[in-house]
Amino acid sequence: MVHRNKITTLTEFIIQRQTEYPHAKGALTRLLNDIATAAKIVNREINAAGLVDILGTVGKENIQGETQKKLDVFANEMFITALKGGGECCAIVSEENEKVISFSNEFSELGKYVVAMDPLDGSSNIEANVSIGTIFSIYRRVSEAGGGTQEDLLQPGTHLIAAGYVIYGSSTMLVYSTGKGVNGFTLDPSVGIFCLSHPNMCFPETGKIYSINEGNYIYFPDGVKQYIKYCQEDDVHSHRPYTSRYIGSLVADFHRNLIKGGIFLYPGTTKQPDGKLRLLYECSPIAYLAEQAGGKASNGFTRILDIEPVSLHQRSPFFVGPCSMVETVEALMRKYHKK
Ligand code: P6P
């Protein structure tokens, strides 16, 4: 009889980890399972999207002024429904909704946690069948009672309790951390179970990949232009020139760089000084995972997790990857910073 290695399911793993928190009562365990359940439903629709009439747009724009894709709306609704029904979350901020979604039914008001999420990041790639993702971050509420409020969500990344992403790619994976390392689970679609496939994920010491949309080159700050030149120099000792890889889907770009070793850059530009990515539900959760995986994330000058958010959808320049690569960019940003 062929003995398969012992499979650890996501549910088993979360429950095992819960025992490491003596005061845990299972609320975070249930919340993480609510997210995993919604992810499986979204995954099913994404995989079927090519076959049913769910591609295309709903003809509206979201708060970001971006045309909403049908799958965007579906994913947003699925995660909101799962989190509201689970009762552990009392409020959500979503890329797809301008205001805080506060759960005021008596059941969810008892929720101790709030969630900031991008339900379907990279959705502009849907028609091209490129990997897309869900990004989520979990904070403990700070308000006393009632439905969650904006105050509960405007917290710096240093207050994060957990964060993760789902990547809907050649396989579907859920990657998350609760502050004790990063672990990746691959969905077995035949039984609908996430199985531990990437325990204790860490960045390689240094990387050879840089990910940036060089189409914006002329608008970049000088420090970023200098870094791109640095990546392209011939220096065998530091494995340069690096390889340029850019998908245009944050979760897919970050996931590849985490596994293979590389830096992702979305700088501010003369046209968008704060860049494109949103702090609460893109930069902070990815920065949290990066630090848990031994890496670093900054806006070029300040640690992402230290930034105190002042608005729900505020943007931030974003540099994330192995410490040595991010520190090289930061040094050039300081050197060439125009006061
Ligand atoms: P650009 C997708 O729309 C997204 O928010 C991220 O997933 C991705 O990293 C970025 O925008 C790509 O932006 O300007 O390079 O197309």
What characteristics describe this protein?
Fructose-1,6-Bisphosphatase, Chain A, domain 1, alpha+beta, D-Maltodextrin-Binding Protein, domain 2, 5-stranded mixed β-sheet, single chain, binds 6-O-phosphono-alpha-D-fructofuranose, 9 helices, 2 domains, 8-stranded mixed β-sheet, 339 residues
Summarize the structure.
This protein has 339 residues and is of the alpha+beta class. 31% of the residues lie in helices and 23% in strands. The strands form three sheets. It has an eight-stranded mixed β-sheet with strand order 4-3-5-6-7-8-9-10, sandwiched between helices. A five-stranded mixed β-sheet has the order 12-11-13-15-14, with helices on both faces.
What can you tell me about this protein's structure?
This protein has helices at residues 10-18, 27-48, 70-86, 106-109, 150-153, 222-232, 250-260, 279-292, 323-335; strands spanning 57-61, 67-69, 89-94, 101-102, 113-121, 132-140, 162-168, 172-177, 183-188, 193-198, 209-211, 243-244, 262-266, 295-298, 318-322. The strands form 3 sheets. The protein has an 8-stranded mixed β-sheet with strand order 4-3-5-6-7-8-9-10, with helices on both faces. The chain has 2 domains: 10-198, Fructose-1,6-Bisphosphatase, Chain A, domain 1; 209-335, D-Maltodextrin-Binding Protein, domain 2, CATH 3.40.190. It is α+β, with helices and mostly antiparallel strands and 339 residues long. The longest helix is centred in the first third of the chain and has 22 residues, at 27-48. Helix 2 (27-48) runs antiparallel to helix 3 (70-86) and helix 6 (222-232) crosses helix 9. The mean pLDDT is 92. 6-O-phosphono-alpha-D-fructofuranose (P6P) is lined by residues 121-122, 124, 213, 248-250, 253, 276.
